[in-house]
Write a sequence for this structure.
């Protein structure tokens, strides 16, 4: 009897730990109501909102639509933004000025060197397994993407599955805004 218990106890704990995996671990931007990300930046240069969160989620035909209070990673401050995760694993920013900007390509295209165009944006994957250390915390296997539109707008982000955007910049590279710097993740709540 003791031998059976010694075998069953590890099996029980193993099965519990494997079934409690957070389903958002396979999402680049984990989509769930109240998920929130907080970033640090030089406040003198850019006193914009340093956080964003999901206020509403809708699902339809396998895709997910998340309404954020704002999504400054791609230049949209102080107004609601919609991010759609398509069934192919791509992520699209949906607001009029973005022209349905696909900022993360389909899952089967995720590889270093992959390039795509979405509206006026030229996008590129610079790396798929980069590591970042921010405030002593290491984020491994980050997806590194760059964006540009003409010679005026430029951006980049590092995204970790199950966490979200770990580091990002979105800049206007000619006057009046010529500052360069990155926002870095300080805290997040992902369900």
């Amino acid at each position: 009897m003791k031998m059976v218990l010694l075998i069953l106890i590890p099996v029980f704990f193993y099965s519990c730990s494997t079934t409690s995996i957070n389903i958002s671990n396979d999402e680049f931007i984990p989509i769930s109501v109240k998920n929130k990300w907080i970033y640090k930046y030089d406040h003198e240069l850019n006193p914009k909102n340093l956080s964003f969160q999901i206020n509403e989620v809708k699902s339809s035909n396998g895709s997910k639509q998340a309404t954020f209070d704002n999504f400054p990673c791609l230049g949209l401050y102080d107004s609601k933004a919609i991010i759609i995760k398509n069934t192919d694993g791509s992520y699209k920013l949906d607001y009029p000025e973005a022209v349905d900007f696909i900022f993360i390509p389909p899952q089967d295209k995720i590889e270093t060197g992959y390039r795509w165009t979405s509206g006026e944006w030229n996008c590129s994957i610079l790396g798929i397994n980069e590591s970042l250390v921010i405030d002593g915390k290491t984020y491994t296997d980050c997806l590194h993407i760059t964006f540009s539109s003409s010679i005026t707008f430029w951006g980049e982000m590092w995204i970790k599955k199950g966490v979200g955007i770990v580091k990002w910049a979105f800049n206007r590279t000619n006057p009046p805004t010529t500052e360069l710097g990155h926002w870095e993740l300080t805290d997040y709540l992902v369900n």
User: Anything to note?
Assistant: Residues 151 and 173 are 7 Å apart (CA to CA). The helical segments are 2-19.
